[in-house]
């Protein structure tokens, strides 16, 4: 079994300077095998300073990561699943499920992990899984204030996948879970 941390859109230090304390504590005490990071870190070292130590990580560049040397996308194999990791600025409109599905189908990938919208999502679309961890710091789409903060955890065991969304409105931390299974190159909810 692989445990994976999925987050992005931190926008540290330009829009936020930290992540919620409850998130920090949870991430710090969890033993992750891997992290998938959807970009818009803004300043990587400032983001790393605001987070617990990360495991082996795959990063992609976001539209606010000026001068970053990361790729625009990464293909990552975890157990029986193929993931496409990218920021999401390529999608019109933002988070376009039909366009995501076409990208996954054309590239033979099972799961899209993207950010950019700052809105978390776990969506099964025509046997492909579309994941958006939202914003780990609660950064708004503008230059001030805060919005709900969120991140995703994955537990991958062969063909089975548990997706847990952690989110807070800054008053209470909640989580929601969804289980999926891959069979014959199709993902279904179980």
Strand order of the largest sheet: 3-2-1-9-10-11-12
Question: Spans with pLDDT under 50 lasting ≥5 residues?
Answer: none
**Coarse morphology:** globular
What is the name of the CATH architecture? 4-Layer Sandwich
Q: Portion of residues in helices? A: 10-25%
Please summarize the sheet with the most strands: 7 strands, mixed
CATH topology: Purple Acid Phosphatase, chain A, domain 2
Strand content: 35-45%
CATH C-level: Alpha Beta
Overall SS class: mainly beta
Distance between the termini: 18 Å
What features would you describe in this structure?
The chain is mainly beta and 190 residues long. It has one domain: Metallo-dependent phosphatases (Purple Acid Phosphatase, chain A, domain 2). Helix content is 14%, strand content 37%. The chain has three helices and twelve strands, in the order βαβαβββαβββββββ. It has helices at residues 21-29, 44-50, 97-107, and strands spanning 2-7, 34-37, 57-59, 73-78, 81-86, 111-113, 121-125, 128-132, 149-157, 160-168, 173-183, 186-189. The strands form two sheets. It has a seven-stranded mixed beta sheet with strand order 3-2-1-9-10-11-12. The longest helix has 11 residues, at 97-107. The chain is globular and about 45 Å long. The mean pLDDT is 90.
Structure in a nutshell:
With 190 residues, the protein is mostly beta strands.
SSE blueprint:
Layout: E1 2-7, H1 21-29, E2 34-37, H2 44-50, E3 57-59, E4 73-78, E5 81-86, H3 97-107, E6 111-113, E7 121-125, E8 128-132, E9 149-157, E10 160-168, E11 173-183, E12 186-189
Parallel strand pairs: 1-2, 2-3, 5-6, 6-8
Antiparallel strand pairs: 1-9, 4-5, 7-8, 9-10, 10-11, 11-12
